[in-house]
Amino acid sequence: MQYVIIGNSTAALYAIEGIRSLDQEGKITVISDETHAAYGRPLISYYLYGRIDLEHIGYRPADFYTKMGVDLILGERAEKIDPKGKKVILKSGKKIAYDKLLVATGSRPFVPPMEGLDAVKEKFSFMQLDDALALERALGPEKDVLIVGAGLIGLKCMEGILDRCRSVTVVDLADRILPSILDEGGAAFVQKQLERKGVRFILGDSVAKFEGTFAVTKNGGKIPFDVLVVAVGVRPNVELVKEAGGEVARGIVTDDGQCTTLPDVYAAGDNCESFDISSGTRRILALLPNAALQGECAGKNMAGGDAHFTNAVPMNAIGFFGSHIATAGVYEGECFEDITPGHYKKLFYRDNRLTGYILIDCIERAGIYTSLIREKTPLSEVDFELLKKSPALMAFSESARKDKLARRQ
Amino acid sequence: MKRIYVEEKWCLGCHLCEYECAFANSGIADMVKALKGKEIHPRIQVEDGDGVHFAVNCRHCTDPLCVKSCIAGALSKDGDGMVVIDQNKCVGCYTCVMVCPYGAIMPAENGKVAQKCMLCTDNMKQGEPNCVKYCINRAIVFEDRG
Is the ipTM here above 0.85? Predict the structure, then answer.
């Protein structure tokens, strides 16, 4: 059996482990256009922040690929899938035959057209380790940095570099920071914390053009900068599957075993859709845990298993300068809130189910809430009044507690 | 593999396991010096309710969600199936805290990394969990239940 995996990040790693859990013999080839062994992609901001060094950034031990019997082709780009001939064609022209193929190509930064952008010398995206290493070289105590985008990527970048430059200004068209995970109140709570650290935000506005060392906003503001980071969003890398004739909607479409509409071609990670059980919709959940679970599921099925990934839920743990945020699900239905100057908590529930939560600086044991969403636990079966105060196993029935604590998990 | 199991009907809610855990992981040989006047950050935590008490620590799940959610590859399963954390790799994002269904992994005292029970294999107790050894009513046991 010849397994080929395009991509070498989280989904690919977990697919390798999924394959090897069932097949220790088959040949696995991994193709990546990056030149590094797999690293935790979100770690690039922690690298700049000084929390992790290059020696420890690898996601798996250095001997992982050897132990797993993987042929690693780095620095090579897969250009095309030939689904009839069952081959992957590389940029170098080399053809690699597969019996089972996984497309784990992730996503790429989206850079909107902005007048004058081409003339900006020091400009960066923030997706890959090489982006972080290049940005690092451009930083310095006399540099003013402009980050376009106040989402997860833009703000983690901000945390990583704030102490390594003179100033950071963040611009976003949205009227609040972290709009994909926070409501208005939560965003204001975190924004205040970040402003106290010295970050400057310009919200509800966008860059109209770049003029020399200034960015001019739609509202007419002029922002001086030396270094630009564009982090407005990402686009899924769906082209290989699309051009081969596979179905693509917002992302690559797969069944719950991660198989695309092309025979023997699987997809996992930020390039494909999931069925989000909290919203009941198909959407891209570009989250590391989701990529891991999809990748593992795909790997097992490629090796002849019968795995299904059926409980995808959006969830994010993120933090800045010692504060911590955990969010999950959708913010719909009734809301319980507990907001003080020190923390911010909202639980959303509907139809006897917890549908989502926002926790800022009160994340302890948040996984108990997450499990209620993932397992669709009827709230009538737990002491929800107790859970509103804090997540605790005490809220479950005696038999459920016994199952959790006195039996093997 | 032997794991820690909890029988809530025998738990008195004395919280001694929390102190024994903090002591075992303190790196200090004298319990009084290790704990006296200090706020403890044990890896096992007792929940107290209306006449009900029980301790919670890592279940060492067969299929651990924390391991698959770790953004740094800091969490892994060792050869025996124990879920281990490499605090040199942990960046303290607490995604593991967000996904553990038992609430059994938590920020460490320094607030910069996560911590969890490793069955006293990572301290001077050499693999005999201190919470089990000193549970006065045998509400916490260390057994192989398949």
Answer: yes
